[in-house]
Fold this protein.
Amino acid sequence: MKDSTVILRLSLCELTEQLQDGSLSAEEVLYAYMEKTLEQQRKLNCCTGIILDCFEQIKTISSCKKGPLYGVPISVKENLCLKNQDSSCGLVNRLEQPAGEDAVLVQVLKKNGAIPFVRTNVPQALFSYECSNPIYGQTVNPHNAGKTCGGSSGGEAALIGGGGSVMGVGTDVGGSLRVPASFCGICALKPTAGRLSLKGCKTAYGQTTGMETFPGTELYFVMTRPDCVTVPSTAGPMAKDVDSLAVFMKAVLCDHLFSLDPTVPPLLFNEEVYRSRKPLTIGYYDHLEQTPTSPSMTRAVREVKALLERAGHTLLPYRPVRLSEAAELASTGILADGGASFLQQLKGSSIDPVIKAYAVAFGLPIWLKKLLSIILRPLVSFPRQCSKYRLKRVGPKIDPRGVNYKGPQFTRKGPQFTRKGPQFTRKGPQFTRKGPQFTRKGPQFTRKGPQFTRKGPQFTRKGPQFTRKGPQFTRKGPQFTRKGPQFTRKGPQFTRKGPQFTRKGPQFTRKGPQFTRKGPQFTMKGPQFTMKGPQFTMKGPQFTMKGPQFTRKGPQFTRKGPQFTMKGPQFTMKGPQFTMKGPQFTMKGPQFTMKGPQFTRKGPQFTQKGPQFTRKGPQFTRKARHLWSSLDCVNDTIAEWRRLNIDVVLCPTMAPAFSVLTNLKLDRMNPHMSIYNTLNFSAGVVPVSTVTAQDESDLRHLERGDLFYPLKEAVAGGLGLPVAVQCVALPWQDELCLRFMKEVEELVQRADHH
């Protein structure tokens, strides 16, 4: 029998080779990893329980000797169903609800000879980048117990990072595979949603029934509730190296998976793409605007970029398109019901400190949420404010859109405009704006002074208490004269004249609730009332209204006239301009057609469709925050990739690991991960470095009050912790993503050896 330390040092490829040729037995490997897992559990609290069925499975494992994962012990995230076991997602109300069968992925792994032997911890409701719940407690980082292991697949990452498992399975809906892998120094792949089955994977809202497709789309969305479509979720592998991820994908993408879940496209693993070594065209960015980025994240991307260039690849600057929309879609998609379902699942359970702030926020009354959004919006929206650290690091480097950033109180230059500050000059083809109390010039108008003059082809406006002139009217005075073709209005106790009426002083009388109002045009009397004049007569409470333009009768009413006829309470309306029918209605005419309650509206000016709708026209395009907006983000991003002719993208991933109980302060870092869930692109992380003393020193530029100061609180004290980069490929190109990850891994290892 081999020493267990020798077994634990083997990579997955080496392990499977020795299991297949008989150099190792499945029992030896299982017990070696079982012993190591128990050791790591005492240190990290990363497991929720041993899978006792593994001892029965090991007795019959010889029947699966031809499987590519024969004898390999695999850890499984707690939200994947196992027969006769609970999958609580850290929620007390999910206990004592054992599953009737294994999740599809678990069945496929067993069929291929793998032995699921332990289940790993998750945050409560799978809703945090930390890993803690009231049932199983807090899981910590294997490299520093004062840091978090990440979430929601945090138990998996901690166990693999600590050496207790050679490979595991997790899920990702907003970085839940990639963030823990980055924090714990291992590799992970978030495949395209739909590439692997989610049948039998539980969420905080219930068990998924697989992937639901929508007509006319190529995207898959998890239905966490029948009435609530969220951002794409996916299962994926986690392991010590990239080759292990490829072995996993090659093993599970098989006919057995496609037969158990017919909603999964029958796409086998493309070994040729993974093994290819042709040079790549790689887009890259080392930070996102308005998104906290640690010094080590930026440095890691730049170092890997240099290695890739030396290896013969082409690197092009790239910026994610529609970044803010994609990030917002991720957050609003996951919380499409405002957190109501999330709160429902927490009923009857104590709330873990890690997510308590979320629970409080989601439980606020709607009116208070709206008020707080108004108050807080200026504090969290800062397109013109930048971190002192980030400005120092980025310096004069030109970004892909041709803009220089300097500062901190700052100069920004580019083809569109020059902006200087701090109380500022802004120039460009459209206008010049100067001053602190300012002059603004351009082809449309000139605007000067603090209490100001504004000029242009349409009007002149002067004063502080002011003159305004133009073709439509003249307005003067503070207590004022206003003239124009429609009317004249004068004085503070005023006279207003025009073709329709004259109103003078208090020249009219209005009395009590049973009031009289008189004038040359009409008399109006009483509350249930008579109104007379040359234009029309209006009588009675349930009423008759007559005049040269129309007749209107009755409470459930008929309205007639030269312009149109309108009848009935659930109604028909006809005339030369349009026809309008029915309560769930059709409206037609030369200008547009409007149909149905969840409706289509068409015409020369615009098209408006659906309840969560698209509205288009010469003036604007307006799109709802739902599936079709996601598709627009995807299409625009793919178009940008094709314009640049890039194959993959290199970018930061969240790193290093946060201090425990600080993840709530860094929600603004989510876009680094979540935009690729919204886009449903393939994405993976590879560890490439560790935090250096210089990285720690660079954090000193962040002072209390800086917008990114919470980053300093969370990542300080991380010397020596792993730092990863993120590799991204287009949807369904998971093999290309893995190939790129493998390229990065090999280049970093070579550089370390030198």
In short: The CA atoms of residues 370 and 378 lie 14 Å apart. The first strand starts at residue 47 and ends at 50. Residues 734-753 form the longest helix (20 residues). The mean pLDDT is 76.
